Fold this sequence. Notes:
Order of helices and strands: HHHEEHHEHEEHE
Helix content: 40-55%
Largest sheet: 4 strands, antiparallel
Structural class: alpha+beta
Number of strands: 6
Strand order of the largest sheet: 4-5-3-6
Number of helices: 7
Distance between the termini: 45 Å
Amino acid sequence: MVNIMSCGWEELGLRLLLAALLGALIGLERDIHGRAAGLRTNLLVSLGSALFMIISAMVAAEAIAGSNSSRFADPGRIAAQIVTGIGFLGAGAIIKEGFTIRGLTTAACLWLVAGVGMACGAGYYVLAALVSGIALFSLVGFKNFDRFYPRDSYRTLSIETSNEVILGEIVKTIKGIEHLKILYFDFDRDFQTGITKTTVSIRIFHTGSTDKIAHSILDTFRQSGLPIRNIKWDHRQI
């Protein structure tokens, strides 16, 4: 890392501009996909991280120059707080909706963008650009990569039937479907309306989309002869 005291305003400005640019590129990908922490958020996180990195190096350099000793000068003291502070932003990006957790990738992007900004602030331009390139490639190139290998997915199935239907019949029907395993289930029986709602959490081992399995479940219940009133297939991941 170049001595911060020997850097002119042009050099410092370049560090800040590069941090803002790289943060904006990663944030643009998040913005395109409708995430709350998008272009502006990632730009500001990267720019702020670069600023704190520069300030941290300047404070340490001035302390060393003033006391002729590096004993109490820690160039990483202020910068280290970036890692702690970014955790609060990351936590705010994670949203839990029922069994679904969203925002993990966005939170990881904020964490990575902070690192990119720190690298720019320290003058490691090539490192910052390389990491940003890898991050963008993984966000764009690997978005639909999971369709090419078998994996487990978790879904929720809600079934409304008349009260005379036995819960065991529904469970037996679901168990007869290939590549599907029941994790747990519960039911709510309303004696006034005569409707029983059964909620089943399932695990599916599949390659590609789960749409075929969803249609298979619908066809199975259609052919079962059970008095099904309504079936809801929740596409959200658990």
